[in-house]
Specification:
This protein is α/β, with parallel strands linked by helices and 249 residues long. It is built from eleven helices and eight strands. The structure holds phosphoenolpyruvate (PEP).
Amino acid sequence: MRAPVLAANWKMNVGAREAAAFMRTFLARYEPHPDRTIVIFPPALSLCAVVDALRARPDVLVGVQNIYWEASGAFTGENSAPLARDAGARLVLVGHSERRHVFGEADCDVARKCAAAAAASLTPVLCVGETMEDRERGATDDIVREQLRAGVQDLTHLQMATMVVAYEPVWAIGTGHTARPEDAAAVHATIRTALRERLGSDAAQIPILYGGSVNEGNAAALLDMGEVDGLLVGGASLDAERWARIALT
Ligand code: PEP
């Protein structure tokens, strides 16, 4: 059994002062639960406020939403994996659909970022998912398998065995159209099979999260599917009380 991972992606919301207030409210409602892992992905400028708020709560982890693949140098405006790790991040989102579709990130960029993260001991959370057009032409499994293959191509066996995968159908992100639990479970099973082809029995330890319009009303049904090891939550994680209810699902 993999312990559920409940992750909040704040996207470009929640400034440093608001983040401190959010964490006070959230931590007052969420006691440590040894049977699950909670992760917050704040914007980079709010990372330190969240890390500070968690000094006495090592049960809640912090991640960054993006990194650049170089470790340091003349890359104005970017943040590297070692910088993120040094600031207290333990995980990083890679290949999120907004990075792919708004910022034009290709699979080769995703692969470089996964490798840079792993080299700096930052756990990559590799996001994969199909568009509605892909789904309607029956290409979901092919798209997801290819994004996964391409994203992990520069990882060692051990680095890959300690990563996290998030299945996030593009049509479900921020739209209010959540995947039906059985549809999500079917794609998770495809991802697990692809992981097993690469890693054998070590694939069993990789958490596969579902993301896409998750809220406190649909979280339990998704988590009830044996294939769904956790949730990546955007909009519904922006309110501390709602997020605490989801974290306690
Ligand atoms: C996300 O940003 O990863 C996400 C799943 O967003 P939302 O929950 O708002 O659909």
